[in-house]
Write a structure and sequence with these properties.
The chain has about 180 residues and is mainly beta. The protein has one domain: Beta Barrel (OB fold (Dihydrolipoamide Acetyltransferase, E2P)), CATH 2.40.50. It has three helices and twelve strands; from the N terminus they run ββββββαββββββαα. The strands form two sheets. Strands 1-4-7-8-6-5 form a six-stranded mixed β-sheet. It has a six-stranded mixed β-sheet with strand order 9-2-3-12-11-10. It is globular. The termini are far apart.
Length: about 180
């Protein structure tokens, strides 16, 4: 997979519709608002950082910047992802807490499928039960072509506390488990 650059054009639109990057993780289909994505890179060499939580897979050098890579499967409380041929890292930008600057994170996924235009009417509220991940991580459920796609709320998946931990890692510090 070659590197694909996606420009962040503004603030996330939430579940009001727009373009979404669709990807696979553990056989399930998820989506992230394209406005929160900076680029997609192929899975390459990661540097593991001692004493980090299991959700932090390691760090990468992205054009001179140290970027923590999060194992989304582990973040959802499942086993760590097995890296395969289609595995890639989605580079996302999330808001820091209390007006802090945006934080850049890498997210390990099993494979990227497509960019879809999803209308606001096609996105339903997150279910209050039955989801395989925490419901506060879900911005909505998109019904596209007879299938459901879980639209993630990136700001909640990567909480303010975790963003602070990732920032510490990027500065060369150590996180506590």
């Amino acid at each position: 997979m070659s590197e694909t650059n996606l420009t962040v054009a503004g603030a996330p639109t939430g579940s009001s519709g727009g373009q979404y990057l669709v990807f696979m993780l553990n056989g399930e289909t998820f989506a992230i608002d394209i406005l929160q994505i900076r680029e997609i890179i192929e899975y390459g060499s990661l540097t593991e950082v001692p004493m980090t939580p299991p959700t932090v897979r390691g760090v990468i050098n992205l054009r001179g910047a140290v970027v923590p890579v999060i194992d989304l499967s582990a973040r959802f409380g499942r086993a760590r992802s097995t890296v395969g041929r289609r595995s890639c890292i989605v580079i996302v930008e999330v808001e820091g807490g209390g007006g802090a600057q945006r934080q850049t994170l890498g997210v390990l996924v099993d494979g990227v499928s497509e960019v879809l235009e999803i209308g606001g009417a096609e996105i339903e509220p997150a279910p209050s039960f039955g989801a395989r991940i925490r419901t506060d991580f879900i911005a909505g459920m998109a019904r596209v072509g007879g299938r459901f796609i879980v639209v993630l709320d990136v700001g909640r998946v990567f909480s303010v506390d975790e963003i602070a931990t990732f920032a510490t890692l990027a500065e060369g510090g150590h996180a506590t488990p």
